[in-house]
Amino acid sequence: MSLVVQCLILATILSVVIATLVYRSGALTSLANSVSAVGLTIPSFALIGLLIAPFGFGVTPAVIVVTFFAALPILRNAVVGLTGIDKAVIESARGIGMSRFRTLVQVELPMAWPVILAGIRVSAQMVMGIAAITAYALGPGLGGFIFSGLSRLGGANSLESVITGVVAVIILALILDLLLVGLGRITTPRGIRV
Q: The whole model's pTM is what?
């Protein structure tokens, strides 16, 4: 849970920054969407295997893989959320004297936040499973129960070990989703919620 939450925060910051840099350009928006679509086709297990050579076993490859996969849906949703804002709203903000940066921070990002949060929720569910797979690289997490049980399949308590890991990952995914729903209710501006 700690690995996933920290990687989600890092992925959200990176994705929102990239989205704010590219959403005004059609070509860059298309490139960002293409990268996020292609990135999701990379098998997580293969990426972990590739990262073991340069970074070794442990937390580093796990963090890189989880952050990479978490950033992809968030980036796509951030771009969609920012490009979907009505131009008249932006012109109105600029018309009352707001700078471009202030318009972005006080108008565009709050209006795009529900769409960005939907991407964060999708990422959270997706990377909870990926984080379990990172136990292959001796990363932290409940995947250790799954891999140790599978390696001793047929032995004493092997099935129980696998079931413990899988059920615990599912429970943590549900808890994280509920926390993100609560975060959405707290952080979404009242005018947008209504």
A: 0.86
